[in-house]
Amino acid sequence: QVQLVESGGDLVQPGGSLRLSCAASGFTFSSYTMSWYRQAPGKERESVGFINNVGGITRYADSVKGRFTISRDNTKRTVILQMNSLKPEDTAVYYCYVPNLRIWGQGTQVTVSS
Length: 114
Description:
Shape: globular
Mean pLDDT: 97
Strand content: over 45%
Low-confidence stretches: none
Number of strands: 11
Structural class: mainly beta
Helix content: under 10%
């Protein structure tokens, strides 16, 4: 059974940091590019960034470039989204996604507020 499970979402103050994890199962994790998306209330889901299968290539949305970092550990079948210098506009549900399999996780809530 193909499954993605995100964790790490929380309430954090502006300027703070959070580390989201996505644990994968049911497919050959090391063969696939992994993506992070987010959806804020009342807005469409948008791409945050992605990492290629071996971790050598990453790309980020302009809105998070320089603040967010995507990494992966193929031995642990996990992809990480490290978020620093968080802003209120980063508030959203964050999703893990496998583009070539069109598989989504259930999402984890990130709220940035004082």
